[in-house]
Write a structure and sequence with these properties.
Helix content: 10-25%
CATH architecture of the largest domain: Alpha-Beta Complex
Radius of gyration: 23 Å
CATH class of the largest domain: Alpha Beta
Number of domains: 2
Strand order of the largest sheet: 3-12-11-6-5-4-7
Strand content: 25-35%
Order of helices and strands: EEHEEEEEEEEHEEHEEHEEHHEEEEEHHH
Length: about 375
């Protein structure tokens, strides 16, 4: 019986645990991972922790105000030291046996040292270092202490990103969200970079952009994408924009890259957002969104919302007019539409009758992404 394929990859790549574990080791343990915004770790003792493939890592600011990254494991028995986000004050203490490290990663205290161990050479038992770097207002970590500069990883794609000055923007609290999608992480990425679906699944919810004029392609392992505003939206953009503009009129549009392996950016005329993809299981993925907007008053945002209300009343429509209660396709929410599409595709992969059809031009990036995944799994990077 011929192997069932989803274009370049076998269906098992989206459903089986062995594929998932190979990707965790060969991709997510060997590339840079998004850890948050720079302001998340802005004072001594502040930290964030995350999972990067097979590794638990945290970033902490030391007493010298320098950022450092360490593997989040105690050197005694390997217990995880820190929770997701917080402030370690002056020291990091393991909750299991109270071994204590300073903010620079040195082991400084072992309870009952003489009685229990005789003597411990603390100089050999500091926390294991990882790499941390800053790029476009974001923190990134790499499990290796010798990962080099983040610009070696993102340098080629940077000219293809939006002209936004991220440091001048502020976080929009209502733009922060975390949710799970019952689909493989590659399904989620491939939906993000599928240009063909924009004018169809999102025909009513993303009508403010001209999808037919989109420009896109891969730069190394990263995907670049730009599309202009639709004519109706652009005709009076200073009135039609839902929030204060963060780009001058001559530089408008949407830059929506997907940085390998799973860091999406949504850079538009009014906002700048991160879309971070974390694999949890072969058929489960967590997505986290954070958004930055213009540093302007509440009055300015309220005024712009009032000015643009007339345009948006008719500009955004659901894909279908009627359906069951809670139907994502009647919600007028493009994220809900995407989640539904990803989950329905994942469900279909289990069917013995599943067979993929031809790939459109706009689905070309999906095939290229699959080739990148294969190169990492085969060690061709």
């Amino acid at each position: 019986m011929p192997k069932r394929m989803l274009h370049r990859l076998p269906v098992e790549a989206y459903t089986e645990l062995d594929w998932f574990e190979r990707e965790q080791e060969a991709i997510f343990s060997r590339t840079w991972s998004y850890a948050g915004f720079a302001e998340d770790v802005s004072e001594p003792g502040a930290y964030v922790s995350l999972r990067a493939g097979l590794n638990e890592i945290f970033v902490v600011m030391g007493r010298d105000r320098r950022l450092r990254a360490f593997h989040n494991i105690c050197r005694h028995r390997g217990t995880r030291l820190l929770r997701a986000v917080g402030n370690a004050q002056k020291a990091i203490t393991c909750p299991y046996h109270d071994w204590t490290y300073d903010l620079e990663g040195h082991l400084v205290s072992v309870p009952a040292e003489q009685r229990e161990f005789g003597e411990v050479d603390k100089s050999c038992l500091g926390l294991k270092p990882a790499s941390v770097d800053l790029w476009r207002g974001m923190l990134f970590v790499h499990p290796s202490p010798d990962a080099g500069s983040i610009m070696e990883w993102f340098g080629e794609i940077e000219p293809h990103l939006g002209p936004h000055d991220v440091d001048e923007l502020v976080e929009y609290p209502d733009g922060r969200a975390s949710y799970e999608i019952k689909a493989n992480w590659k399904i989620v990425v491939e939906n993000y970079i599928d240009v063909y679906h924009l004018a169809h699944l999102h025909s009513g919810t993303l009508a403010m952009y001209d999808h037919a004029r989109a420009e896109y392609g891969f730069v190394g392992p990263h995907y670049a994408f730009w599309e202009p505003l639709s004519a109706d939206y652009a005709a009076d953009i200073e009135r039609n924009a839902p929030m204060p503009l963060i780009l001058p009129p001559g530089q408008l549009g949407a830059w929506v890259p997907m940085l390998f392996p799973g860091i999406g950016l949504a850079e538009s005329e009014t906002s700048w957002s991160t879309y971070t993809i974390t694999p949890l299981a072969p058929d489960l993925t967590r997505v986290e969104n954070r958004t930055r907007v213009k540093n302007a008053s509440d009055w300015a945002f309220g005024r712009q919302a009032w000015r643009s209300a007339g345009f948006w009343k008719g500009a955004i429509t659901a894909k279908y007019d009627a359906g069951e209660d809670g139907d994502p396709l009647t919600s007028g929410d493009f994220t809900a539409e995407d989640v539904l599409a990803c989950e329905r595709q994942q469900q279909a992969l289990r069917s013995p009758y599943f067979e993929v059809g031809p790939a459109s031009r706009g689905e070309g990036p999906v095939l290229e992404h699959q080739e990148v995944v294969l190169r990492y799994l085969e060690g061709r990077t």
